[in-house]
Amino acid sequence: MKINLAASKQFPHRLRQGAALCALALLCGGQALAADAAPAKAKNVIFFLGDGMGPVTVTAARIYGHGEAGRLTMETLNRTARIKTFSLDGQTTDSAPSMAAYMTGVKMKNDVISMSSDTNAFDANGKPYQNNADSTCVAGNGQAVQTLLELSKGAGKAVGAVSTTRISHATPAATYAHVCNRDAYNTITEQATPGAPRYNLALKDGVDVLLGGGLRHFLPKSDPASKRNDNLDPLSMFKAAGYTYVASGTELRSVNPASVSKLLGLFTASDMDYELDRVKKKLNQPSLAEMTEKAIGVLKKNPNGYFLMVEGGRIDHALHGTNAKRALEDTLAFDAAIKKALELVDLKDTLIVVTADHDHAIGFNGYPKRGNPILGKVANYADGKLALAADGKPYTTLVFGNGSAPRRPEDSDLTNVDTEADDYLQQVGVRFAGSPGSETHGGGDVMLFSAGAGSDSFKGTFENIKVFGKVKNALGL
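^ that's the sequence the OP posted. Answer follows.
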């Protein structure tokens, strides 16, 4: 299926401007659009997404990095809001429809990437509309809906997506691709590849900056490292389209943004490593802050401005694995990227938005004393002694409501266990079968922080789909 968002006949919901434009917001085909776009306040937008970064994760990361009275950089942004995250068919959303809600203003079903509300991710028998990472979506199963990145590209702005996951993973994919099922990584990659049969024509000459993991979906099946099922060679096609390609932290650091117009960086075969491992093992991968800095350097040369999405994607993966330490380390790395962006931009013409797509089933537990290690066992504030559960054994401050965390026999008694160790997995309530990684998302609201041009409307409590209109209006699109 070739997607051409520029063709209005494929998008009957697109606004038609006539002699008399309504001054009220219209709801057309499930997408909220303003009839009269507000005067542009922001030339640029940087949209930061901490995947799975719910309120407990934010609080724990603050204590872990700065103490109870400290502040994360994101917490210094002066406009805050509370975001409802439910999807069209779930009280608890997954990353695909929640990020797509921010990017399109459309409420969609779990596992769907930037498609209309009537799109199904699974057929009537429950089979996913993807096979071995290729989309099997059938005709008539929904239609593509326009994203903020595509709108920005259509307005002549530069655009980019940066992530610590595969660049074809749900969050970055929701900015530039349209598929029925999020696991169609090969199809998503093809939609971003200039000249490919299923290239998304709304991207015009391409997403100007793409940085993250996922090289295995950019290589033809003849390559032993490939996960593709065809002979398409996206990496070669990107290079032929004029992209500068980098494959390591060293190569990215050597890039001079002044001499680069398009930049592709693929630093790992799949997702990038956790920040804790990247630093301790001295891996030749860039930090999220370094990727953010280079992306801004390339994009800011466009006189019309830019739209950049930056995801701290592996926060979510560590939480799924009930490994709180790696989740907190990645949250701090995400916060460092925000700090770097604030050093590089002028908030008079740039809107910064920081939020999460969903929560996780992580809890802040007991009555620990001030200064107690957030990854440690609870020591009571009254007497400083270890708090004990009904079985007479200590417990940690951070726990998970569910998950699969196989343990050694001695881990049922944490008295002599180092709960601050890198690989320690927090205890869980509802236990699932299988290996670590099955902890679920949480359905709670998440936080949004914002600052800069057009940030005035980011206050109160509202659904995730409302963020789209606020960003769109700030850009005057």
